[in-house]
């Protein structure tokens, strides 16, 4: 399994960014896809997940209403649309995947398959 993330950058508070994650190496039926982030000195935080088959989403409270996760099954790509960005959103963002057992965040927190990170910097 290979995950290639892109789309990070620098933006002012209140701005928007869209991250992309191209997945390859297998079919992802019955897998969960998602994004997590890690800021300096902080633990990894799962921010959003989406089931590959049905597209059921889940969000961390810290991003609910501001971030939207989606997937394009034809392109094997997952997106994270981030709006109303805050300085607290500054972190390295990673995409991750894992077979889905029913608890998306728990499955992603196994961190079995993780792409390279992309830096998101939000300046106030």
Describe the structure.
This protein is mainly beta. It is 4% helix and 52% strand. The chain has one helix and eleven strands; from the N terminus they run βββββββββαββ. Strands 2, 4, 5, 6, 9, 10 and 11 form a seven-stranded mixed β-sheet that branches. Strand 5 and strand 6 (57-59) form a beta hairpin. It is globular and about 40 Å long. The termini are far apart. The model has no long low-confidence stretch (mean pLDDT 97).
Brief summary of the model shown:
This protein is mostly beta strands and 124 residues long.
Main features:
four-stranded antiparallel beta sheet; 124 residues; seven-stranded mixed beta sheet; 11 strands; 52% strand
Q: Please describe the biggest sheet, giving its number of strands, its sense, and whether it closes into a barrel.
A: 7 strands, mixed
What is the CA-CA span between the terminal residues? 37 Å
Overall pLDDT confidence: 97
Q: How many distinct helices? A: 1
Indicate the topology.
Elements: E1 2-6, E2 9-12, E3 17-24, E4 31-38, E5 45-51, E6 57-59, E7 67-72, E8 77-82, E9 91-99, H1 104-108, E10 113-114, E11 118-123
Parallel strand pairs: 2-11
Antiparallel strand pairs: 1-3, 3-8, 4-5, 4-9, 5-6, 7-8, 9-10, 9-11
């Amino acid at each position: 399994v290979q995950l290639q993330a892109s789309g990070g950058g620098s933006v002012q508070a209140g701005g928007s960014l869209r991250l992309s994650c191209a997945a390859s190496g297998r079919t992802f039926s019955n897998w969960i896809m998602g994004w997590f982030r890690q800021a300096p000195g902080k633990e990894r935080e799962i921010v959003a997940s989406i089931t590959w088959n049905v597209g059921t989403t889940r969000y961390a409270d810290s991003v609910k209403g501001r971030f939207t996760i989606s997937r394009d099954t034809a392109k094997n790509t997952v997106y994270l649309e981030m709006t109303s960005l805050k300085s607290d959103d500054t972190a390295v963002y990673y995409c991750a995947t894992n077979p889905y057992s029913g608890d998306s965040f728990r499955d992603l927190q196994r961190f079995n398959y993780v792409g390279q990170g992309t830096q998101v910097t939000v300046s106030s």
